[in-house]
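haha ok so turns out i had the wrong file open the whole time. this is the CORRECT one, sorry everyone. sequence first:
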Amino acid sequence: MLPPNTPHTMRTTLVSLIAISLACLHAVAAELPAHPLAGTWVNIDENTDSITRMEVKEEANGWTIQAWGKCVPTDCDWGAVPLHMAVACADAPHSRCEKIEVPGEKTVTRCIYDPLDIAKFKHGVAHWNHKDVGIQVFMTLQVANGELVVETVDVFDKQMTGQTNMLIKDSFRKAERVPTEPVAESAGR
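then structure:
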């Protein structure tokens, strides 16, 4: 907040500079490349009985993933859950560690990690707990050769469903446009 006795021309100039700065920041942000995982993904198998599409987003509090499973007459929205990002060991930051003598105490090791390029986070883990239908879904995913490779493990409440746990592997491609069909609000698989 500017003091009330600031000259009008100085206020106008300052407001103009702030507006220009914000416009520049917006332009720079718009030119940044999208993260490899971010976006809408559709199952390569158009006749899948599994996950039909997913949306991966980076939000203020971290990453989220929302999935839709095959249901009739419309796909079932599983809801959005946190997506925990991971990096492959080969891409992990290197560290420099040094031993430090703390007077009156033992020797302590301090490690300094190199910054990590966010684009190297090409793996993720998510979990849906559909208690109402007795299914927990554990998902791992990774970007490989422009595709999103997804493995899910469906863990069934045997008392509720009587089904055996299943491992399902699907491949997805980035959607050219976001599907607009209505979806059901059920967790069905």
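The first helix runs from residue 8 to 31.
again sry for the mixup
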